[in-house]
Write a structure and sequence with these properties.
The protein is mostly beta strands. The chain contains 2 helices and 33 strands.
Length: 382
């Protein structure tokens, strides 16, 4: 059954190795632009006239090769890693600069290590194409912004910015995704595309900001905020359990969406608290926001019509401090649910402390025969 349009799910992570083996040394192709057309597929644009491959990283050295340089990707290409750095030295000193990967193609990255990394002291790395993880099954796709995580350069002034404008997916199973902005509190990663259902858990860590702006994220696992700030401007997918660690912050922007779903296959009409499995927000850090939308999806097939004829309460939708009514003051959404949480003729959803409640509207006895057994506001999920 479906109470609202399903928002997305996703996750992909290869735990970062800080070893120089994953640095800018052997197994890397450095962009030099000597081909003159800015095309990734033109081997003349790379050192040794050899484009990156599954065992060869794509390295962009802005200080050596020109601030504001760019490379275009309109088809499907493969590389081990994507790295923006200050110069062509394998262990560069912190530097400044900008680089853009443009185009509407897809870059498949095989890892391992920090698979996408803005290693600059100060600078912007923009990636427009879709990113696909093609590494080892069950590993982690790691995305970093900040020079001090690799090469032993130590902390530097920052900030470093990474903009990911395409969708993120994986062709291998069990892929988690990790975003880590580590330069300083003002460094950031903007995820403007969508994280697709081939990703499992997604972790947002480090000390900087991560901005989740895609409106159709569909990753299938948990959302873990382990450090810094996660600003949700798009959506957190239906069914994702969210955990905010001590010292970390989760903030919902106006109009952003949290996808809440009930798996009703375990529902028991005789037990007030046994009302199916549902996802929660566990806050051990800081939780804030206002004007966000609480989107409801019903899954499974255990809820009969009679279930909705009684008042219900789903306890501990929020565990820890926070105010659901304030954060989700943008109202409700879902099939047949208006923004106030009302389902015409049947009842209304609302918040009561850390719980979600359902207040039933008594049905006239003549409506309890026949048609009421198929709730018009619940669409069976297919």
């Amino acid at each position: 059954m479906r109470l609202f349009g399903r928002t997305l799910s996703v996750a992909v992570i290869a735990i970062l190795s800080l070893s120089p083996a994953f640095g800018v040394g052997a197994g890397s192709g450095t962009w030099d632009g000597e081909g003159g057309d800015n095309e990734w597929t033109n081997s003349d644009n790379w050192t040794d006239d050899e484009a990156p491959s599954a065992s060869k990283s794509a390295e962009f050295g802005s200080a050596a090769d020109g601030v504001g340089a760019s490379v275009n990707v309109d088809g499907d290409v493969t590389a081990q890693r994507l790295v923006l750095r200050s110069d062509s030295d394998p262990n560069p000193s912190p530097g400044d600069g900008n680089f853009a990967v443009t185009g509407s193609g897809t870059i498949t990255l095989t890892g391992p290590g920090d698979t996408v990394n803005n290693r600059l002291n100060t600078g912007t790395f923009t990636v427009d194409p879709n990113l696909n993880y093609g590494g080892t099954a069950g590993s982690t796709f790691s995305v970093f912004s900040g020079d001090d995580v690799v090469g032993g350069n130590g902390p530097s002034v920052g900030p470093a910015y990474l903009f990911l404008n395409g969708n993120i997916s994986s062709t291998t199973t069990g892929t988690d995704l990790e975003f880590n902005s580590v330069q300083d509190a003002t460094s950031s990663i903007d995820i403007n595309g969508n994280i697709e259902s081939t990703i499992v858990d997604v972790t947002f860590g480090g000390i900087g900001e991560k901005n989740l702006n895609g409106s159709s994220n569909d990753y299938s696992g948990d959302t873990l905020v382990t450090g810094g700030t996660l600003n949700v401007g798009g959506n957190l997918p239906s069914g994702t359990n969210v955990t905010v660690d001590p010292g970390a912050t989760l903030d919902f922007s106006p109009g952003s969406i949290f996808g809440w779903s009930i798996d009703d296959s375990a529902a028991d009409l005789g037990e007030e608290l046994n009302q199916g499995d549902y996802n929660r927000i566990t806050n051990n850090g800081s939780l804030s926001g206002s004007g966000a939308i609480f989107d409801i999806l019903l899954e499974g097939g255990g809820f009969a019509s009679a279930f909705w004829d009684s008042d219900r309460s789903w306890n501990d939708v929020l565990i820890g401090s926070g105010n659901l009514e304030t954060i989700f003051s943008g109202g409700f959404s879902g099939a047949g649910i208006d923004s106030s949480g009302s389902v015409a003729g049947r009842g209304q959803f609302g918040f009561s402390g850390s719980s979600l409640s359902w207040t039933a509207v008594p049905e006239p006895s003549n409506l309890l025969i026949g048609g009421i057994l198929c709730l018009g506001f619940l669409r069976r999920r297919r």
